[in-house]
Amino acid sequence: MAQGEDVGNLKQVIAMCLAFTWLNPHVYLDTVILLGTIASQVTDKLAFALGAVLSSFIFFFSLGYGARVLQPLFAKPLSWKILDILIGVVMWGIAASLLLAN
């Protein structure tokens, strides 16, 4: 591979990372709406901000390294089906709690 190809690939990777970050609507929903709403109810803003940053770092760090550790497990289609079912159960649970709260 030539030197110019490496630079071109690096620029493409950086552009793609920035696009996934800044063009993702969940970034704004989670950060502005969800965290903003919760933060408006908290008295110690600094502690809340530090906790949010730390938990975000731990989550993404665990997600990155956890994917490598769990790769052999998720090589099996049954594992994906079980994960999908668990996610569905959690989503239905959240929906039910929202319906019952009103």
Explain the overall architecture.
It is found in: Cell membrane. This is Arginine exporter protein ArgO. InterPro entries: LeuE-type (IPR001123). This protein is mainly alpha-helical and 102 residues long. It has helices spanning 3-22, 25-39, 45-70, 77-101. The protein has a domain at 14-75. It has 4 helices and no strands. The longest helix is centred in the middle third of the chain and has 26 residues, at 45-70.
The end-to-end span amounts to 61 Å
- Helical fraction equals over 70%
| Topology order in helix (H) and strand (E) letters | HHHH
Shape: extended
Question: What is the residue-mean pLDDT, rounded to a whole number?
Answer: 88
Number of strands: 0
Query: What is the gyration radius calculated from CA atoms?
Result: 19 Å
Structural class: mainly alpha
Can you count the helices?
A: 4
Percentage beta strand: under 5%
Oligomeric assembly: single chain
* Largest beta-sheet details: none
Keywords: Cell membrane, Membrane, Transmembrane, Transmembrane helix
GO molecular function, one term: amino acid transmembrane transporter activity
Transmembrane segments: 12-35, 47-66, 78-101
Subcellular location: Cell membrane
